[in-house]
Amino acid sequence: MSYLQDITARFPVRKRDEEKEAFRKWAVAQGKTLGYSARVEELARGRHCNVVFGSPEHAQVIYTAHYDTPARLPIPNLMTPRNIPMFALYQLGIILVLLLAAAIAFVGAQLLMRNASLSLIIALVVYYALLLLMIAGPANPNNVNDNTSGVAAVMETMARMPKEQREKAAFILFDNEEKGRLGSRAFAAANPKIKKQTLLINMDCVGVGEHILVIGKNYARAKTEYAMLEQSFTPRDGLQPHCYGVTGSVCNSDHQAFRCGVVIVACRRKKGMGFYTTDIHTRRDTQADQKNLDYIAESLCDFTAKLYNLPRRLTGKSPLRYNKA
User: What count of Cα atoms within 13 Å lies in the side-chain half-sphere of residue 29?
Assistant: First the structure.
């Protein structure tokens, strides 16, 4: 059984405290079985519990994903990582729906009570209640792509990495991404050196789509070793990698908390829309392709092998790559 199948069967929802705790115990046990040091790191007085494998303080690259799962939405959370106007239009549409619901509540209350101040309060309550439901509402029952696929990709990478090369890498499963990237932000705040200097590669919704996007922030792309990361992703098995900078890109995930952050996301592509991922945050999030996870894990292991063989004096910044789009 693959990690994707095992996590989906055992821990399909990881939203409540007890669901998260059960998953963390399993993940720590899996890490130790693979030969890694593994621990749960509690931050902000235990509000955010990240699962850490290896030594992030000494690693040259950190591979991450978030393990918490979202609330269920009536409409999918459409991701268009290379189409900013489409992304903005979709987000605006959601806001307009919330405002429409609040307006209906206002009109209904005004007709019943003839009190504008009280009607406005009711409308605001409806608006913020709906907004809260989108973040902390009933758990989505299916979360295979978001983000079981990312967690499984991290575990696959851990399992395939040769023991002698593991000193170059660490792995983190972040908590509370769905509440505003709280787990990764707390980790970054507690580890300012990692936040500023360490290459961090985050996997989010990597299970659906034949196009694998690797999007790096400017400081990440300025590192000498970043060219080797791009070289490790080559077309094969019907999968096509695409490497981009932050210019023209939008993807809100845990890599945002780190100056040298990179995100990997899988997408389909449609004329007029470009790359897109849909069905997440809905009951229809039931699919992820193991082929995608194998491809990503193999590519990242290839990159780690390149780091292992790279003379230490060659790592760091390369001004020629800085600010490349």
Answer: 6
Q: How far is CA 116 from the centre of its chain?
A: 43
Whether the CB-CB separation of 164 and 308 falls below 8 Å is answered with: yes
| 270 sits in which H/E element | strand 261-270
pLDDT of residue 167: 95
Listed residue (199, 195, 178) closest to 280, CA to CA: 178
The pTM for the full model equals: 0.92
DSSP 253: S
3-class secondary structure, 246: coil
User: What is the three-class DSSP state of 129?
Assistant: helix
Shortest CA distance to 305 belongs to which of 234, 243, 201, 232?
232
Residue 52 tokens, joined: 């850490």
Give percent of the chain above pLDDT 90.
Answer: 89
Name 34's bridge partners.
none
Query: Cα 126 from chain centroid?
Result: 30
